[in-house]
Structure formats: C-alpha cells, structure tokens
Amino acid sequence: MSSSIHLTNAKGRDATVGMSPVKARPAPKLGVPGVTVVFRRYVATAESGTDASLKSRFSNDYAQELIKADPEVDRERVGTLIEQTQAVYLDGTGQVMYADPRFIELIVNADGTEKERRDPVDIASNINGEAPVRWTGRKVSIKDAVRRFSFRRILQLQHVDGLTFDYLYQMAKELEDSQSLMLLGTGEKGSGPLVLQANGRPYRGFLSGRTKGKSYKLMLHLSDMELKKPVAPAGRSGRGE
What we know:
Elements: E1 4-8, E2 14-21, E3 41-42, H1 51-58, H2 63-69, E4 81-82, E5 105-108, E6 114-118, E7 134-141, H3 142-148, E8 149-158, H4 162-178, E9 180-185, E10 194-195, E11 202-212, E12 215-226
Antiparallel strand pairs: 1-2, 2-8, 3-4, 5-6, 7-9, 8-12, 9-11, 10-11, 11-12
C-alpha cells in the first residue's frame, strides 16, 4: 500500500501528503498475572489416521480396531511440534496440485446471484498518481454516515512540510465545524472508488477532521459496503403478527 496520497482540497488545489494506518489498541492478554501464555501447535494425526484411511483398511466399522491397537496413532508423527507451515492447494479429489490454480473472478448481483465469470482484470492503484483524489464537496453528517456505511479501514493523513500542514489543518477544521465527513473520489468527476494498491479492493473514501489548538487529526475512513434496510417480501408489512 502506498504511504502517500495525492488529493485536492475544497479550492481544487492539490498536494501529496503522507498516509499511514491507524494503530489498533492492544487486545486483552490471555493468562494470569505474572505468567506469559505461549501457544504451540502439535500434529494431532497423520494421513494414515484419518477417517478415510481407516475405513479403507478396516471397513466402516473400525471401532474395535481403535480399542485393540490404536491404528490411528502414528507414534513417529503424532505430538510433533509444528514450527512452520506452508500453504498448498488441493484438487477436488484431495490430491496436491503442483501448479498454481487458474483464478476466476466471480461477479454477483446485489441479491448474491451470479452475474458473470471472467479472468481477473489487473487494477492499478489510483491514490498517488498524476490525477489526484478529489474533494467532491459532498458532505455526509457523522450521524448519517455511521448508519449508512460499514467502515473497514481507517488511515491517518499527515503533513510532510509546513505548507501541507496548513493544507491539511484547514481541511480538518472545516470538517470539524460542520460535524460531517467529506466524500472523496477518483476520476475527472470524483465519482470513482479509491484503490490503495495494485489489484486491491475498491473503497469509498470519507474524510473526518478534528483540531485542538494548533494540532489537527485528519482521518480517511474506507467503506466497501452501504447499509440498506431490507425490502419486506410482497404481501407482508414487516410487522409482527
């Protein structure tokens, strides 16, 4: 992902500024006070101990064989510490594939039904190119935004010199005063989505700002889902009976 973004302000002036992910708060730690919990992974069974393998050797009813001889336990492998793993692809029969699979892009309608299948299309990042990300002038109140959109990521915009400090401070001040988010977009009309990295997920971008004295905080909220009230089936009012 790019560490900078090229965008315009309300007056149409553009600048390239820094951008970084917002650090998440540390998650609660598991364990007891004064004791560090360490997770380890061990081999639970080998291929010879799987249900399919045991059925092929002892038929479907192999319970007595488990009691008599523990054939599902491979003493050379079970209990071995797993330190590193590597992903492999399996085909429909469970066999290892030694060549990369061919990926297909699946396009679906709003109701989840399949619309089209096609070869993946390479999409370039568009937030730090020659054409800037545009301040569209379309504001959404904070109260409406949290009810209309699901936000997946938050990035913080940062100045790189004194000029861009004033540039971003004024943005943050305007958004703070209006208690709203500003929709950002790409393309000549600012109607396109933001793509942060090559072949990345397209997002809608919303700016929020706060100031405190001579300090500011300008955040870019990224959404890929609009929340809509589900449509009630025909013949039903949606009220309980």
